[in-house]
Design brief:
- The protein is of the alpha+beta class.
- The protein is about 35% helix and about 40% strand.
- The protein has helices at about 10-25, 30-40, 45-50, 95-110, 125-135, and strands at about 1-5, 55-65, 65-75, 80-85, 115-120, 135-145, 150-160.
- Strands 1-2-3-4-5-7-6 form a seven-stranded mixed β-sheet, with helices on both faces.
- A hairpin with a 2-residue loop joins strand 2 (about 55-65) and strand 3.
- The two termini are about 25 Å apart.
Length: about 160
């Protein structure tokens, strides 16, 4: 597996991984809602902004020449936020998510962060286990609108 910074040329592969991951993970969302959300959150314009924003790290994981995972984080003042973390369902359990997380954490620490936060839908048990296995603790809840409905999110925090 190779971890590297994402490029503009990776946008369609990032969307492919995100779409497969969301369809596999979020049972409470119907297929159309997932596809519309991926098109909005991972569209060319949104990804272009994510790839070029100062204080940002956007990484992809490649295996045998294919992108199989990605993560995106940003630092604001002393706090790093994991904005996106996805590993294709066919490659989960292979250490790719851990590799992406560890590299993201290293890259964001270059910006002098003192804590990391991750936000995920409350229904994502796998996400909860992943973050808690890496030392994050649930520290709050919030709502996000997806598909015209409010969905519960959990905020996980890791003090560094």
């Amino acid at each position: 597996m190779e971890l590297r910074p994402a490029t503009r040329e990776d946008r369609s592969a990032i969307r492919r991984v995100a779409r497969a991951t969301w369809h596999d993970t979020y049972d409470e969302l119907d297929a159309d809602t997932i596809d519309e959300t991926i098109d909005e959150w991972y569209g060319d314009e949104a990804l272009e902004t994510a790839l070029s924003k100062p204080g940002t790290a956007f990484l992809v994981a490649e295996k045998d020449g294919d992108i199989v995972g990605f993560t995106h984080g940003v630092v604001t003042e002393d706090e790093g936020d994991v904005l996106r973390m996805s590993v294709h369902p066919d490659h989960q359990g292979e250490g790719i998510g851990t590799g992406l997380y560890e590299r993201l954490r290293e890259d964001l620490q270059d910006f002098n962060m003192e804590r990391m936060r991750a936000i995920d839908l409350a229904s994502n048990e796998g996400g909860r286990e992943f973050y808690e296995d890496h030392g994050f603790e649930p520290t709050g809840e919030d709502d996000v609108e997806i598909g015209g409905k409010q969905r519960r999110e959990v905020v996980y925090t890791l003090e560094l």
